[in-house]
């Protein structure tokens, strides 16, 4: 294999996947397990009957997620935001990645797809990926995503088309770009919650809603799910979902592993944060066209 092909493969090996994340410079530096929030507005746990509980501790969280998904599908057409993500892949915690994103939600009318999921990403940080652009439109372009590198590499290497789940596109990623976005995040939360509900007894899961959390200065409600006892059937020790009180949307998801010692800190498994969300901005097909003159996929 030529040196050119080896270089091209190494440069493009980490092209985006992911569900979602976020940058608030100062937000990410804060304690990932906030402890100074107000008392829970709703707590469901093994409390020996001290408070009235639903059939299963996860039911309130699943009810919220189901209602939110319905709201997204009826009221949220598109949005722009900054996504920050960090993932642990094959035991290694990757650096934060910052991306400006345009997302147009998938829409179905009378069983017919009227608008495919459409995604445009521009990488802001770290410096090694700054300027990288990625476009994906579900069901178009032979189900491939269009990508090119930033900086000097972007000037030397061509724009490429990749299958989102190909080895090259998935290297260093937990999820393909087909699963990015707030709607997909909620879908994943529901799927994971239903699976957790099927294996987690009411005494092995604790669920709390807390007011007073903040993400990038915005008031949020924190939904926290915790498994005090480690079992192979559980994906995480603690999962946190931050719900923007004004937007009524989940804007951050973070999952943590069990600490190695009783006094140790839980390690990050994955975290996705959505910042500076602007909803229903009127994105068009041109926003997801690699030939858009404002993009650099085919710069002359």
Question: What is the strand and helix layout of this fold?
Answer:
Blueprint: H1 3-12, E1 40-44, H2 59-75, E2 78-89, E3 92-93, E4 97-104, E5 107-109, E6 112-115, E7 118-125, E8 133-137, E9 145-148, H3 151-156, E10 160-162, H4 167-170, H5 182-199, E11 206-215, E12 218-226, E13 238-244, E14 249-256, E15 268-279
Antiparallel strand pairs: 1-11, 2-3, 2-4, 2-15, 4-7, 5-6, 7-8, 8-9, 9-10, 11-12, 12-13, 13-14, 14-15
Helix pairs in contact: 2-5
Explain what this protein looks like in three dimensions.
With 300 residues, the chain is α+β, with helices and mostly antiparallel strands. It contains five helices and 15 strands. The strands form two sheets. Strands 1, 2, 3, 4, 7, 8, 9, 10, 11, 12, 13, 14 and 15 form a 13-stranded antiparallel sheet that branches. Helix 2 packs antiparallel against helix 5. The two termini are 28 Å apart.
Point out poorly predicted stretches: 1-50
Summed up, the helix count is 5
- How far apart the termini lie comes to 28 Å
* Overall body shape: globular
- Kindly report the average pLDDT value: 84
* Strand/helix succession: HEHEEEEEEEEHEHHEEEEE
**What gyration radius follows from the Cα positions, in whole Å?**
20 Å
Largest sheet: 13 strands, antiparallel
What is the β-strand count? 15
Task: Give the % helix.
Answer: 10-25%
- Derived from helix and strand composition plus strand pairing, the structural class reads alpha+beta
Provide the β-strand percentage band. Answer: 25-35%
